[in-house]
Design a protein that fits this description.
With 125 residues, the chain is mainly alpha-helical. The protein has one domain (16-118). The protein has helices at 19-23, 27-37, 44-55, 62-78, 84-90, 96-121. Helix 3 (44-55) runs parallel beside helix 5 and helix 4 packs parallel to helix 6.
């Protein structure tokens, strides 16, 4: 640990890297791509791609599924999900553990959308 900060640490602007370059980093690549695209006006296509990439990382244990869940919660709550129905439909192509994890998040998003719609529909006093 003492030698860790004796050399300059290179910083990388992930916006300057292509998604293909970032994908080569496996686990951290998925996180980097979420960070790179989280402020896009429409993250739905990216979200499905992230899920499919998670599925390619091999057998998922409990920690990995928690990682996916945290990452997807962050992405869907911070980013702009336009068509949750599309993501739910497409999530059926995912392996069971990841698809189930996504469905839980999708259900939370749908509940949140319904709550927002109710708040907008209430007459202002």
């Amino acid at each position: 640990m003492k030698t860790l900060f004796h050399e300059p640490i290179p910083l990388v602007d992930i916006n300057q890297l292509s998604d293909d370059e970032i994908k080569q980093q496996r686990w951290i690549g998925i996180v980097a791509r979420v960070i790179k695209h989280i402020r896009e006006p429409h993250i739905d296509p990216y979200s499905l791609e992230w899920l499919l990439d998670c599925a390619t990382l091999g057998n998922q244990n409990h920690q990995q599924l928690d990682f996916f869940k945290t990452l997807l919660n962050c992405a869907t709550r911070t980013g702009n999900v336009i068509d949750i129905d599309y993501l739910v439909e497409e999530s059926h192509r995912l392996p069971k553990p990841i698809g189930d994890t996504f469905m839980t998040i999708a259900e939370q998003l749908e509940l949140g959308a319904k709550r927002k719609a109710k708040l907008r529909a209430k007459p202002k006093v």
